[in-house]
């Protein structure tokens, strides 16, 4: 239970970074669309690097220690990644929610109050991040978990700003936009507790939990973040942001996970 508590605290801190990122909307000018998409690209790059360096590779190493070299570690990684992506794909299809550009999705979204549609959309997005941090800390691999938490917290800063700006673009005032953006960060500790508890049930589940979280994050990157950054024609800036985010997370993982 100590590891689960650590997973909760770490994911709560990373989720809190979403509120920190949204703070500028209370005081400054609304950021440009180009700047916003560049920051989201940065967040995608951090998540992409974290998926591989902090989740998939450690899972392969643990599986190899458990079962020896051969096809089994690779099979666990492949199946776990696909299951993680499938879980978020099903949530995206079954939970009513609303995106800023594509509009309402899921079954009968009209039955849910408007602001909660946005909250649910971000929840689908943020849960895998909390899950990843929870699994990493629940595994007891503190160095890798710390690097992952720093990376996720870092990418939550531009995400929080993007959510608040998006809410302002559809009619919310500055205070409402900030509060809703901050609220979406509360989803991450829920994912953190779930991930920490899952991998503590049995060590056999540890490599599965790591790649499941990676698959969930990879789905969000491809299905949500990258298309969002490319819709308004800012794909060059967004791609540059992605590359910077990827190498920053690579640096953090190598530096902090030693």
Mean pLDDT across the residues is: 82
Sheet with most strands: strand arrangement: 1-2
Q: What is the beta-strand fraction?
A: under 5%
Terminal Cα span:
26 Å
Question: SS-based structural class?
Answer: mainly alpha
For the biggest sheet, the summary is:
2 strands, antiparallel
Radius of gyration: 18 Å
Number of strands: 2
**How would you sum up the global shape?**
globular
Helix content bin: over 70%
- What is the ordering of alpha helices and beta strands? HHHHEEHHHHHH
- Number of continuous helical runs: 10
Stretches where pLDDT falls below 50 for ≥5 residues? none
Account of the protein in words:
- With 258 residues, the chain is mostly helical.
- The protein has ten helices and two strands, in the order ααααββαααααα.
- It has a two-stranded antiparallel sheet with strand order 1-2.
- The model has no long low-confidence stretch (mean pLDDT 82).
Task: Summarize it.
This protein is an all-alpha fold and 258 residues long.
Keyword list:
10 helices, mainly alpha, globular, single chain, two-stranded antiparallel ribbon
List the helices and strands and how they pair.
Layout: H1 2-22, H2 24-27, H3 33-67, H4 71-94, E1 97-99, E2 103-105, H5 114-138, H6 142-169, H7 174-184, H8 187-201, H9 206-230, H10 235-256
Antiparallel strand pairs: 1-2
Helix pairs in contact: 1-5, 1-6, 1-7, 1-8, 3-4, 3-6, 3-9, 3-10, 4-9, 5-6, 5-7, 5-8, 5-9, 6-7, 6-10, 8-9
């Amino acid at each position: 239970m100590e590891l689960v508590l650590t997973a909760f605290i770490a994911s709560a801190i990373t989720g809190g970074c979403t509120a920190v990122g949204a703070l500028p909307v209370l005081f400054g000018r609304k950021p440009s669309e180009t700047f916003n998409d560049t920051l989201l690209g940065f967040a995608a790059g951090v998540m992409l690097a974290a998926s591989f360096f902090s989740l998939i590779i450690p899972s392969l190493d643990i599986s190899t220690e458990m079962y020896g070299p051969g096809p089994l570690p690779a099979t666990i990684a492949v199946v776990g990644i696909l299951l993680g992506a499938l879980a978020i794909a099903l949530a995206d299809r079954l939970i009513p929610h609303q995106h800023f550009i594509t509009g309402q999705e899921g079954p009968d979204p009209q039955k849910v109050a408007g602001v909660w549609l946005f909250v649910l959309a971000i929840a689908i997005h943020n849960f895998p991040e909390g899950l990843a941090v929870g699994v990493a800390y629940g595994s007891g691999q503190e160095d890798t978990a710390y690097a992952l938490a720093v990376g996720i917290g870092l990418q939550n800063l531009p995400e929080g700003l993007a959510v608040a700006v998006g809410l302002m673009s559809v009619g919310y005032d500055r205070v409402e936009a900030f509060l809703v953006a901050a609220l979406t960060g509360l989803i991450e500790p829920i994912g953190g507790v779930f991930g920490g508890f899952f991998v503590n049930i049995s060590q056999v589940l540890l490599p599965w939990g790591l790649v499941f979280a990676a698959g969930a994050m990879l789905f969000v990157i491809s299905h949500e973040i990258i298309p969002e950054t490319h819709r308004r024609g800012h794909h060059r800036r967004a791609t540059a942001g992605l590359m910077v985010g990827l190498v920053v997370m690579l640096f953090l993982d190598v530096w902090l996970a030693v």
